[in-house]
Every structure is written in structure tokens, then in C-alpha cells.
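Chain X:
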Amino acid sequence: MTSINIRFIGASLLAAACIASAHGQVPPINAAASVNGLIITNDMVEQGIKTALAQGQKDSPDLRNAVLSRLIEVSLLAQQADKDGLANSDKANSQLALMRQNYLAELELSNYLAQHPVTDEDVKAEYDREIASLGPRGEIVQYKVSDIAVATEAEAEAALARIKKGEPFAKVASSVSLAPNKKDGGAIGWIQAGQTLPQIASVLTTLSKGQVSPEPIKMPEGYYLVKLEDKKTSKPPTFEAAKTAIRAGLIQKRQYDYLTQIRQNANIVVQ
């Protein structure tokens, strides 16, 4: 038997397994399993498989059995939580509301990208633009970057003050950053200016090696500090080698532009 590591099945899938109800009914054609009358659909299994494949797993009968087994375990635990009176607790309700919001946000972005896809022509045009911008020497400048992401300007200023007093950037990032890379001291790795958002790129290109952004960088989702760890130049990659990264960057930019548009039409009050 192949060892299968199912570390995570998306929050929306877990929520669906927790709240889907079909007690006392004959399992429908789409049912993969029934746990005390609660249906686990084949759609849930397929979603779990997609998540596992994105984590590097290989599709196989063992993987499918592992995903279904995990969904059965989730269903059993969810039903027990209901029996124990946990389903209507404030904590459960707030977490379920957050899971629903996250799922709908991801769904909206997916829907927007489906209607406004990044085409092969877009990717080639961006590659040509970046090559043309390199100038007569035709070299790419790469930046080794670390960052700190926080919710408010005051938090960013406090983090910057700690760094200015001599505290290591990585230590401050590990203690206050909201980004997933906080566990790595805020390290991002090597990027090009065009692979990040304009607000960060405009600051990054002015920094010297070892320097931190002199003030917080305002972004739609919060405030950032960036540190230039190192800098190097290299010859540009071929289009074939670069197209995957370029597509990912264009998708990120398209999502950012859409979110910016939505924010401009929203009434947001931070209390």
C-alpha cells in the first residue's frame, strides 16, 4: 500500500462535511458514503482530491480512499460535536461564518478570473514588455526580500521602531507579522520588481543591501515593511522558462486590481 499523507482538506470542504444533512434518506446517486444518514457526496471527495493533488500527492485509488476516510472521520466528529451541544456555540458560529466568508471570497475571485482570464497572448506581451524594459545591457535585477505584514499603521510603526533600535528584522517578523512566512523570519526569497505590487516595487528598487523600508507601505489589506537582503543581476530566461511565473504574476495583479475596484465602491469603517 502506498503511504498517503492527507494533511489538509480545504475549509469549505470540511464545512460542507460538517453541515450537509440528509438524515433518513436513501443515499442519492452522487453519494460516496453515508454516515448515520449524513451524505458525503462524490463532489466533496473530488474537491478533497484536488486539494491533495495541489499539495503534491499523486492521484491513485489509495489517495481516493484516504480522502473519503478523512471525510468520514470529519463527519463522525461533527455529529458528535452536535450531540455534545457544541454546534450552536458562539465559537462554532463565528468559525463557520468565517469559513463561509473565506469560501465565498475564493469563489468570487475564481469566478472573476474565469470571466477575465489571463491569456497566452497576455503572458507573451508581458514577457516582451519586461525584456524591452531591461535596457541595452539586457540584464534582470533580482532582489532577495523579507517582509513584515501587519493590520494597522501603528503596528507597522512599532515594528519599524524595534528594527531601528537594533532588533533583527527576522525576529520582529516572527513575532508580529501576519503573513505565513513569519515562521521563516519574513523571508520571501529572490524576486523581480515586476513580480510584486507597485507600492512595494517602488520602494524596493530604492533600497540598498541590508536596508529596510524607511516607513510603512500602505496596502489594501494592511501595512508592510520590506528589507532588501541582497541584490544580483542575471541574463533573462527564455519565454518557455518564464511563462509560468509571468502568468502567476498577472493573475495576482488581476486579483489585486479587482479587489481595489471593489474597495473603492465600499463603505469600510475600522473600529
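Chain Y:
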Amino acid sequence: MATYLRGALIAFTPTALIPLPNIIVFQYNPETMTHTWTQQPVSPTGGQAKGNPLAVTGLPGEAFGFTLAMDSNDSIADGKKVSGTLAKVSGVATRLAALEMLIRPAATKGGTLVGTVTAGLAGLGKKKEPAAEVPANRLPVVLFVWGPGRVVPVRVTTLTITERLYDPLLNPTHAEAQLGLQVLTGADVTGIGGGPLAAVANAADVYTDSLREVLALANLANATESVIGMVPH
């Protein structure tokens, strides 16, 4: 009997020492997935009426979309002590809560979602600098893991949950979650700042990009065979 890997979302929460991973393993792999690429706009060319149509401002945007199914009855039937007990007590509520945390910003002590930073006076008679809004909180760093060939840093952009069945305490026992993931580019990863969180995201970005380039080179073998097949014998 074949054993299949299961996809996962790994969220890293910042702590005082090292980031703590919260691993959300898919109960069932989605049967279908959309993988969307969006090209960046054409780069401006110094006021010229018409520039190079192939010049762009950066790497293309990349996004994934899929639906996850969850069923507490299967968790109970599996006979696993921890997951089975949680399923009996709360249905799939714990799985849903873990997904919901991916789209909520991590709270900082004494902070609000958007803080205002104002530069102080440089001295008497100096003009006060304008206020600049900066995010006081930020979303967790999330890795989308779909087998060894695809590990990418992402930001969860959309989450739509459909609850279908409930237990006597109205805990959902069956649900579906539609997720939209935006892949972070190298520039996005740089914007995270330094520290272990940025290092984790950068390592995943470099790994997947390098593997994609290797696979593209390997496809030259297919192209060669196709060209040979076009030549009349």
C-alpha cells in the first residue's frame, strides 16, 4: 500500500530565543490546487513614449489557492490518543482555530495594530517631522510545504471557512477551508528584517527557486527529444 506525504503549513511565532513552529498538517490533501503567476507591470523608461515591452519592475507574483477538508469522525476513528480526544471534545474547532491564527497579526505587548511613530524635535526652532504610520504588529512567517520539491514562504491572504455539521455542543465536526496564499518574493523576505524569522523564509525561498531552475534545465532533455521527433526519418 502506497504511503502519501501530506501537505502542511508551518507558522513561526517570534519568541525571545528562537521562533517556535506551529505545524498544521493537512488532514486530507486537497484534490486540486490553483497556482497563479501574475506578471509585474512594464518598467518605465525615463519618459519615453514607448519603452521595452519586455522590461518589468521585478519578479512575477505567485499565489496558491486550494480547499482543505476536515472531519472529526475520521480523527476519532484513527485511534490516536491526542487528536482523537481533541476531536471528541471540540470537533474540528482546534484545526480551524490554527488556520485562523495564520491570518491574524501577532500581538505585541502594549501595541496596537497600527502605531504612529513621530520623530522628536532636533532642537529649539526646528520644524517637527511629519508622523509616519508603521505596523506595530505583523503576520507570522508561514511556510507552505507541499512535498520536498515545494517549500515556499507565504502570506495567507484569504480564508473562507464553511462549517457543515455540528456535535450536541455546536462544535463543528465537518468543515472546509478555502485558503489563498501569496508567495513572498526575495524582496518581500528582505523586508521582514533580520533575525531567525527572515533566515527561515530566505532559506525556503532560495531552496525552491534553485530547485525550479534545476528542473527547468532538466526539461531540456524533453525539448531535445521533441526536436528529434520533428525531424523526418
